[in-house]
Amino acid sequence: MSEILNEPFVDAHQHFWNLDLHSYPWLQGETVPNFRYGDYSALRRNYLPEDYGRDTAACAPAKTVHIEAEWARDDPVAETRWLMEVAARHGRPTVIVGHAQLDRADVAEVLAGHAASPLMRGIRNKPVTAARREDARRGVPGSMDDERWRRGYALLAEHGMSFDLQAPWWNLDQAAALAHDFPDTQLVLNHTGLPSDRSDAGLQGWRDAMARLAREPNVAVKISGLGLPGRAWAQPDNVPVIRDAIDIFGPERCMFASNYPVDSLVASYDTILAGFVAAIEIYGARERRALLHDNAIRIYRMA
């Protein structure tokens, strides 16, 4: 460990991809509209355990959670099979969150295929959300309100799977209803609820939405994805947001996550980790260990 941290920690959100062997449309021809960091062409390269190892050389996590990396959607279970091979060779990732399109007709088959992997812990499926706060609506097809999508979500409990949610804060009213209606499924909010609007009004809207979601006891949040387009990752920008998120959810329901290599667009791994460590220095030793390690171990069942 470096001077950043002298205790074990878990990276609860990282990705690998091999563009030479597999298809990732968002990295190979397609373009993600309104990508929150702007130009992401620097990500159009292989990112494998040796690359992650170089990026984390000064502060290597004890365990990692691999989140599906937008593998071609025709066979999402193939990504899990490949990651099992990667883990057998390299010792990373520790556990896997795969992809399943919850409103597809074959969702039960896909979930069963993922469940065959001993490293599988949950599913991420990005529901339909609004690109702007003023466009947020309830009941949109493919959203968390959609009954067909919810029928797929209901199947997660049969496999003991959690759900990783990526959605902007103005859609978190739907997430709160989802968590309330399916109390036996652990919901993990990705990227701190995407507080991209750092105006006073934007941050207040984010805090209000996060507080509504935090009322549901089966929700946790990953502190990640806090970069701002056109700006280097900076503690004055992000430490207050980290502390607000932890204050809202409590230190027993928040986790460190790097979102590497995506967040390499805005910061080195060391910078992100050091910022998180600085943000949590106000807590006691037990709470810091929970935020850095124990919560992720519990929520992603890595004990």
From TrEMBL:
SUPFAM superfamilies: Metallo-dependent hydrolases (SSF51556)
Signal sequence range: none
Domain Amidohydrolase-related: 10-301
Family: Belongs to the metallo-dependent hydrolases superfamily.
Name this polypeptide is given: Amidohydrolase-related domain-containing protein
